[in-house]
Predict the structure.
Amino acid sequence: MIVGLTGGIGSGKSTVLKMFESLGVPIYQADIEAKNIMVHSQEVKKKIIHLLGDESYQNDELNRTYIAQKVFNNKELLASLNAIVHPAVYKHFKNFVAKQTAPYLVYENAILYENKSEHLCDKVIVVTADLEDRISRVMKRDKVDREAVLARMNNQWCQEDKIKKADFVIHNSNLDELAKEVAVVHNQLLKANEF
Ligand code: ATP
């Protein structure tokens, strides 16, 4: 069973993911794998350079700032970039899934709904947190100002729309409660998998 994990910026997806991992659940981080593929797949790299130019890489490292600047506010370029990266990640993910023997795995994708990737998942968990908590946590983590966090939030669906589509909602207030909520969902998923 594939369980999607999503939620807005700073909601606590990575924190929740680590908790599932510590329960022995296999995890797949779409964003991290996409970045790996953009660096290590020669085929993908060639296509990105063709689309965005040589500056997309610096000494074989991804030039994230350059790429972000190129595709920010340019929907066509972003769609073309996604059309290169997404199929490669999809293929990699399918290989990962085929190797798993656990009852379920968690597939983390911050923009699962925005990218219409929920069809990959049997169930979806949405992580939520109070807006002010999310803002202050990201400001602290990324050392950015409030406006920068709000700008990133504006590119994502709002929490309420994600909640409407979710199978499970995990609210992240304090870490102890969060661990308990994760354990409850874990047990429900194990039970759901018995049938
Ligand atoms: P992003 O979408 O930006 O990748 P995320 O949803 O993965 O964020 P996390 O990175 O898990 O969110 O959490 C954001 C920050 O808040 C991290 O620094 C994390 O350690 C911290 N954090 C998460 N949950 C809590 C909590 N309940 N109490 C205090 N700090 C928290």
Notes: Residues 75-99 form the longest helix (25 residues).
